[in-house]
Specification:
Length: about 60
Amino acid sequence: MAEESNNWGGRREGAGRKKTGHGKYYGFNSTPEVERILESVGRGKTAFINEAVEFYARHKGLL
């Protein structure tokens, strides 16, 4: 019997989530208005929130 190659499982090049710069995790309770905004964004809420906070911080002179 020929030896079979096990080609499943284990680490694979390019597999899994891509690494991004991770900051601290923040959980918060939104207002109903913010909830509607975030639900309308669909996917990518984290990127949207990060961009919004950075925009606001620049506007307020914090950056």
